[in-house]
What we know:
It is a single chain. The protein is an alpha/beta fold. The protein has 9 helices and 10 strands. It has 2 domains: 2-186, Nitrogenase molybdenum iron protein domain (Rossmann fold), CATH 3.40.50.1980; 194-305, Rossmann fold, CATH 3.40.50.1980. It is 39% helix and 14% strand. The strands form 3 sheets. Strands 1-2-6-5-3-4 form a 6-stranded mixed β-sheet, with helices on both faces. Strands 7-8 form a two-stranded parallel ribbon. A two-stranded parallel ribbon has the order 9-10. Residues 1-33 and 122-135 have low confidence and may be disordered.
Amino acid sequence: MWKSLFGKAGRVAALAMVVLVLLGGLACSSSTxxxxxxxxxxxxxxxxxxxxxxxxKVEVTTxxxxxxxxxxxxxxxxxxxxxxxxxxxVINGAGLEFWIEKVVxxxxxxxxxxxxxxxxxxxxxxxxxxxxxxxEGVNPHIWLDPVLAQDQVQAIAQALIMVDPDxxxxxxxxxxGYLAELKALDEEIRDTTQSFSTREFITFHPAxxxxxxxxxxxxxxxxxxxPGEEPSAAYIQGVVDTARxxxxxxxFAEPQFSPKAxxxxxxxxxxxxxxxxxxxxxxxxxxxxxxELMRYNVEQMTLAMQ
Length: 306
């Protein structure tokens, strides 16, 4: 099964866990004609982290497309083949990739390394409503907090060094530069959100819990507590009542889901619908890097909360 490379006392500074998959999967070789290290990442923000740390030493493939919801997405045969051909796989963890063990056990090459970048902070709101299992109930949207994202970047850097020690210096230098950019992003967001005239917002699902906690905002209500589970009419009415009480200017939808429920609530309380995007994508203008994605989301919040 999965073997941890770091014990509890020997974790990297990120407090993330890197795991080595020692499974007898397909007899596939991860060798390639290219000298670049083949890396797969499940979602775009993680792929962008890898690109910034790995630079020209890595070839990164993002498994999920921009419009996919990671809460419902499962890999197709072609994506399973991509995983099988990779040397390193980067996942968010915290239950986001609910399919990971099954796929890796059946399709991964024996030398595939999987890095789980999840950091489970002890903060109020970390558990999803109605969930009792400590692992499965954890809110997985870690990357949307730029401070926790820095921990994920450090975990990725450690994994790259582990599988490709010859390029250790390049990975460390790249990671240091990118971490400085993320620290500047955190300060930029902090300055912007401090000027918000309202602290409460209503969004599609609880993707912004860590972000809100970091910057002193309040995720006052969500349209779907569990993505894919349609809320009842009574629940929607409760969200409408909250929106009216707070006099919110906008209801935040997400491009990975239908905006119909958000539009219904907005119409009831005289608000508009704006979009927060937790995933982004390499082909989406203005959201084609993690930093630009976060700036876009803060701009959307500013329109509604300034």
